[in-house]
Each structure stands twice: as structure tokens, then as C-alpha cells.
UniProtKB/TrEMBL annotation:
It comes from Alkalimarinus sediminis. One of its GO terms (molecular function) is proton-transporting ATPase activity, rotational mechanism. Signal peptide: none annotated. This is V-type ATP synthase subunit D. Belongs to the V-ATPase D subunit family. Gene3D superfamilies: 1.10.287.3240. Keywords: Ion transport, Transport. It holds the Pfam family ATP-synt_D. It comes from the Bacteria.
């Protein structure tokens, strides 16, 4: 780090630094609050999605107890044909969301499969969509956590390092200049006394 110059020019620069840091800090703190709010929303959305997955899975076994029969072939009954992930910009952080999902059902004869397969296919689609949403919400939350950590580091840099450092430098320079001014006054008084004495 460069040695601090103890002059009026350096004092002026330090005061300007402090003012500019003071201007940036409130906007950083506001962004931090907004990102914390978005992270909380993402956590709540993820918890809600997981709760919904659990309740749908629990209700499947109540509504369709026949799923316990092991000789029924359900492989490929419902598959994801396509899905569309989009990204949105939340306070400078790109986060994904599930725009759409298209399922494909296996073709099966109505006489060859049990009558409840249609209902099962609907429930499977719902569970698969929820599980995809859960994965997307996990990514969204992870990105928001990184953004919160980054903005918190910036807020701390300004509030705990840069601003206090500028204040400390202003104080050091101010004290030095005040001491120099006092010393100058004392020297001039001594010089006047010598002139009057001599």
C-alpha cells in the first residue's frame, strides 16, 4: 500500500473518497436487502415444492393401493418429451425458471392395462413436473446464495474497510496539518520575540 501523503491535496482526495463510498453504500445495502428477500422467497418456494411432492406421493398410495402389485409394467408410461427453461434477471443475478414442460404418454390398449392407468399417468406427470421444478428451484436458490454472499462482501468492504480507512486517513492528515499549523504559529511567535529582543 502506498504511503499516505500528509498534505492538503491528500486530505481533499480522502474526503472525496469518503463521500463517494458513502454514496455507493446505501445502494449496495438496498440491493443486499432485496437479494436476501429473493433468497427467502426461493427457500420458501423450494420448501413448498418439496411439501407438495411428499403430499402427492402419499396420496398416490392411498388412491391407488394397487401400485403395490409388482407384476404391473409401468415403465415408460409417462416420459418428458420436452421442456423449456428460461432465465430471469433478479438484481443482476440470472436465475432459471421452468417455462413449460411437455409429457408423452405411452400408447397402451385400454383392455390390456388396468382402468386406473389414466389416473396414474396424470399423477406421474404431476410428480415429474414437481420434481423438475424442485431441481430448478435448487439451482435458483444456489445462485441467489452466491449473489447474497458477494453483495454482503461488498457491503462489508465499504462499511468496515474503505469508509473507516478514509475516515482514519482524514483524521491523521488533519492532525498532522493542525500540528504543522501550530508549529508554524509557535515559530513565528519565537521569530517575533527574537526580533524584538535583538
Amino acid at each position: 500500500m502506498a504511503k499516505l501523503a500528509l498534505n492538503k491535496s491528500a486530505l481533499s482526495k480522502e474526503k472525496q473518497r469518503k463521500v463517494s463510498y458513502g454514496r455507493y453504500l446505501p445502494s449496495l445495502e438496498m440491493k443486499q436487502k432485496q437479494l436476501l428477500l429473493e433468497r427467502k422467497k426461493a427457500e420458501e418456494a423450494l420448501a413448498l415444492c418439496r411439501s407438495e411432492i411428499s403430499s402427492v406421493e402419499a396420496s398416490i398410495y392411498q388412491q391407488l393401493p394397487m401400485l403395490a402389485v409388482e407384476n404391473i409394467q409401468m415403465d415408460g408410461l409417462v416420459v418428458v418429451e420436452s421442456f423449456n427453461l428460461e432465465e430471469e434477471n433478479l438484481l443482476g443475478t440470472k436465475v432459471p425458471y421452468l417455462e413449460s414442460i411437455v409429457f408423452k404418454r405411452a400408447e397402451y390398449g385400454y383392455l390390456a392395462r388396468p382402468h386406473w392407468f389414466d389416473e396414474l399417468a396424470l399423477v406421474l406427470e404431476k410428480v415429474m413436473k414437481l420434481k423438475m421444478q424442485e431441481q430448478v428451484l435448487n439451482i435458483r436458490l444456489a445462485r441467489l446464495k452466491v449473489a447474497v454472499r458477494t453483495i454482503t462482501q461488498r457491503v462489508n468492504l465499504f462499511s468496515k474497510v474503505l469508509i473507516p480507512e478514509a475516515e482514519s486517513n482524514i483524521k491523521k492528515i488533519g492532525l498532522f496539518l493542525a500540528d504543522q499549523e501550530r508549529a508554524g504559529v509557535v515559530r513565528s511567535k519565537l521569530a517575533k520575540q527574537k526580533q524584538h529582543a535583538g
